[in-house]
Structures are given as C-alpha cells and as structure tokens.
Amino acid sequence: MFDKVLVANRGEIAVRVFRTLSRMGIKTVAVYSDVDAGALHVSVADEAVNIGPAPANQSYLRGDVIIEAAKVAGAGAIHPGYGFLSESADFARAVEKAGLVFIGPSADAIDKMGSKIAARQVMSDAGVPIVPGTTEEVGTLERAREVAVEIGYPVAVKAAGGGGGKGFRVALRPEDLAQAFDGAKGEGERFFGNSTVYLERYLENPRHIEIQVLADLHGNVVHLFERDCSVQRRHQKLVEESPAPAVGPEMRQRIGDIAVQAAKAVGYSSAGTVEGLLAGDEYFFLEMNTRIQVEHGVTEMVTGTDLIEEQVRIAAGEPLRLSQDGVKLTGHAIECRINAEDASRGFLPNPGSLTTYDEPTGRHIRVDSGVTEGSVVERYYDPMIAKVIVWGEDRAEATERMLAALDDFAIEGVKTLLPFHRALLETAQWRDGETCSDLVADREWLETLQSTQQSGDAPHVQHSIH
Fold first, then answer.
1. Which of 233, 291, 337, 401 is an active site residue?
2. How many CB atoms are located within 10 Å of the residue 141 CB?
3. For the residues 394-402, what does the mean pLDDT come to?
C-alpha cells in the first residue's frame, strides 16, 4: 500500500479523496494555484505544493509541474480526481514514466475511450449496442448530409474528443445541419484541440443512465448498478439518483452485463462509468468515463462501498474485494449539485465570496464540498460549491429528505441552484419519475425562480430533517 498520495485536483473532490486516504492511514499531498492558497483542500492535506498561477493551463493542467511536486513531496502515487488531467492518457503515461503510480486506468484504456469515434468502434466490435450512426470521422458537410439521410433526422453532431456538453450540436431538420456541423467542429477544436466529428441518431428525451464499474488488475470486473442522470442543463448533470426510477430488475441485470462487457472490451481497471441512453426498452452505449464520477457518492450511499478506497487498493495491485453477488442495492439515493449559478438567467455562473455557509446535517444526509464560510468561488474554475446526497428507504422518502436538506442549507454571498432544486423536486414530473428535461429548458419556468433565487440578502428558512 502507498505511504503518501498526491491528489492532482482541487475543491470538493480533493477533500473527498483526502478523507478516504487519511482513514486508510495514507499521508496526503495537495497542490494549489496562487488563488487557492487559502482553499479548504489545502488546509486538510498533510502538506501542500504551489503549482502556479490561477489559470488552469498554468497550474492544474501542468502535468509536468504536478509530477515534479509529487517527487519533491515523496508521494508514491497520484490520484487525478475528476476533470483537469483525470482522463489524459499522456498524463497517465508520464506519471508511470516518472516511476509513480497513476490511481486510475491504464493509459491505453484511456486512449481507447478518449475518442468517442474509437470508443464506438471498440464497443460495436465487442457486441455492445451503440446509438445508430457512424464509427468513423465525418469530414465534410456533404458527407454529413449523406449520413443524416441514412440514419434519419434528428441527428446529433458530436466532437470526437468532446465531453461535458461541449462539441455537441443537434440538427432537427436538414436545414439545421450546416450550423450544427460547423458548431460541433468549432467547439471540438476550441475546447479539445480536435475538430473531428461524427454523427449519430439524436434520441429525443431519452433517459441518461450510467453504470458504475470496478475492475482490478487481475481481470475481475463488477458493476455497482445504475444512476439516472437525466436532469441536465447544456448536457451537464444537475441531479443524479440511484436506482433509476424507470429501470426494473430485468433491465438492471441487462445494462449491468453490458457495462461489464464494455469494461472487459478495453481491458479496464480502476473505477469507471459506462454511460448510455435508455429509450423505451433499448439501451445504447454512449461513452465511458475513465475516472471517478462527480456523482460517485450516490452509488456509495446505496451500496455501502467506498469507491475511492477501492480505486486506491486496485492501483496498489490488490484484487477486488467485491464479488458481483456481494454487491447489494439498498434504498434510494439522490444527489443535487449546488452550483454558484443563476438558473433564472440561463444558469449563468455567479462567482464570489461565501459570506454565509452552513451545511445541513442529519441522518442519511451527506454533503461533499471544498468550501467553508469566507471561501471564494473563483471565476477560473467550475462553479460547483457542494453536492448534497441523501438516502431513503425509497424514492419518496429520499425526495423528502432532500427537500429538507436543501431548506436547511444556508449559502449567502452568491446566487446558487438551491431554489432550482427545491422547485424541481416539488414538481409532479419529478414525483412521477419522469425525466424533467423540458423543465430545465423551459425559460419561463426558470424565470419564475428569480424571486426566490438565493443571494446575499435572501432569507433562510429552517426545517427539521428526519
């Protein structure tokens, strides 16, 4: 087992990983940019190393500087968290070349899943169902028009290296295709340095269902059931839950088997997530995230498994401690991402200082955050402040606990998504287990939240948590 681990990240995920490492008796090393010198993740680590200026490309994306920091600190391994360098095959290779352990999958597995086109081909060859579309680059608008006719409108134009909603455009009709094609190529180049795109059938209002997997270095793979991540804005997740309300035992078994099959197809090891779309009774592979997910806590709540600990043990060469029969799904968990955003203004980021920050507490309530009162939500990074995760015996109880937790969460100084989540979980659509996608895109509905938008002068209402 490792004596010391550096976490190549910031904020809540760094704090989350440190918590498990400390419990395991492993010393922790934080890295931080100039503006993060006073951040919570720095103070909770055993030691910390400055890695440069605020912009991520001068600090948290500088793999060479981070590896040097690990060497200077005497860390034997690096945990990448999520975002930043977590899905960089080049970084994983560089870590290994430096004689350190990358707590994640192999660089080859990251490579195979890093290109959406290559991933679709690998999965198709392995017999994993994929959304109808191309498994090769669509290089010209003329070719895109031909493919669109073949697979039928509406179509999605996607950047091969895309993710997080970037490089994703939809053409509902033939006259929309040119703009979608140019837009996806442009975003692919701008955000990922790769303008390659492909086309697939656009599934209208599907459920976004992902499956958590764990795989060791000895060929063992298990799944830890599914999460429903259908509530999104700009193709980025806002609410996650497990189990998925539309997935029954038979479908759960089927998509779990698909996820294990997908992981084995790329020789995967570590924690990973197979993302897919559920349309009716059909499930299609979408992509594989070769890292820990933001929403991993949802799975931890319903399975009782510490996924970070399993990642660390796998990277240290230990065989999986779980068998598929030993993974049990108990109760229902929901996660709400509390971002510093104004839902009434198109989810506009709202960076600033947290003049009040008081987390909810109570039975079966968990808050993962990287801030305290007085912390600054920086404009340089993702605006997520915290994740609220609750557990209940069933979905209805979990929903009630989440509403109580949201009411007891006091944040002032910035606008947040607290009012959005409260309103969403009160709707009949949520209560009935529908996708709620239309609500998230409904400008008029979102504008009604403006009067209740949490801000520096917003009232705080206390409710009891059961």
1. 291
2. 13
3. 98
- Indicate if 216 and 192 belong to the same structural domain: no
Task: Give 464's pLDDT tier (boundaries 50, 70, 90).
Answer: very low
Residue ranges making up the domain that contains 322: 207-452
pLDDT of residue 447: 80
How far apart, in whole angstroms, are the C-alpha atoms of residue 359 and residue 106?
A: 37
Last residue of a domain, one of 103, 120, 142: 103
- The reply to whether the predicted model has a pTM over 0.85 is yes
User: What are the residues facing 50 on neighbouring strands?
Assistant: 32
pLDDT(445) > 50: yes
Contact 378, 370 (CB under 8 A): no
DSSP code at position 417: S
**Residue of 251, 4, 283, 313 lying closest to 123 (CA atoms):** 283
| pLDDT(461) > 60 | no
Is 461 part of a structural domain of the chain? no
Using CB atoms within 10 A of its CB, is residue 309 exposed (0-12), middle (13-18) or buried (19+)?
A: middle
Question: Alpha carbon of 37 to those of 18, 30, 48, 372: distances in Å?
Answer: 17, 10, 9, 14
Structure tokens, 128: 């994993």
Is 190 among the catalytic positions?
A: no
| 36/142 same-domain check | no
Name the DSSP class of 250.
Answer: H
Question: Are 152 and 81 part of one and the same domain?
Answer: no
